[in-house]
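Sample intake sheet
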Amino acid sequence: MSDVVWRPEDDPKIRPPPQEGQVYRPDILDIIETTLDGLSRELRALSLDIHDHPELKFEERYAHDVYTAFMEKHGFTVTKNYLLETAWVATYTHGQGGRVLGVNSEMDALPGIGHACGHNLIGISGVAVALAAKAAMKRLNIDGKVVLLGTPAEEGGFGKVMLYDNYDEMDVCLMCHPAPGPRHSISLSGCLAISRITVEYKGHTAHAGLSPWEGQNALDAAVLAYNNVSLLRQQIKPTHRVHGIFEGKDWAPNIIPDHAIMQWLVRAPTTSEMEDTRKRVISCFEAAALASGCKVQVTIGSVGNEIRQNKALGDELADVVLKRYGTIDYEWGIKSASTDFGNISYLMPGLHPGFSIPTIPDGGNHTTGFTEAARSEASHDACLVVSKALAAVGMRVLTDEAFLQKVKDTFEEDKKLRA
């Protein structure tokens, strides 16, 4: 793997040779490229500003203000504090009628490690796609609308799901995500469906030395549940993920704990598979309660769908990338992670490619190494490349009615494949 993954010491100027052939509407792509190359320094400053001010889910007030000021400066109509305190919408309309291109910008960071998932890059990519589309629409007199939605709380808050209503007018929605991968590769892999589960055990306190037999140990129940799940992992598919943590308070070694909480995540390649594995995981929790004599309450929280990459949109992205920028893969990106954009891809035609940035060994997403990687010059350049390709896809949606119909037909066909 170390020979494949893009490392900081690798020369970013080395690119794969482009494939032969013409992209759709090269005049549009030329405007996109010229626009974003001209805005590169401004976008990098925006990215670093966000990176230097990490904020947790639903607390992205600084990012909200910086992004909305930036979009207003560039001629977009902005609605601040849209439905959620830190959500926002920036729109641009040209002419009468036309189609609606939707784009997402994420903002939140992670506890203790800042922008270790590269949301500063995701944020400026959404901005870049919107600005490039505006430039092309204005220059070539293309009717339509661009809606850039600033979405809070991707890291565990399901912010996009809370903003469902604002997706109604979009014909498609686009965004991207950085990750480790081969040099200059853009990934069309998906992600895993996810379910959050809270498990609460209630027992009875007792003196741990004097009369432990009088207690029901809630911590023992949690430990049993943890071990049960560890054993279950031998019998679940390698593409499935189950992971959890303990929570408790007022614990002391000389008191039998009467209360314990666990937070769990269950993931699988499809929502249907996830639900099947979740049933088996819940049996592990219930068995632990029976063995320990404790009561258990299992609460199923938010459910995130897997990303359903729209094939028509993905094929168009691949065509642009292979002929102008780099390589396409289907194995990297955020394949084994999860995102609330999966729910959006169930709602409407969507595309969420990953794009590789140079990372150190063991420095993938959600590590301090990735925090540093997300602010490098090479990562910024890679972000602009995928943004150019996404803008080209978006402009085809706005200008090619037959293509948009194919996108919609593909979406309807995919709905039939969901279990």
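Comment: The longest helix spans residues 26-51. The mean pLDDT is 97.
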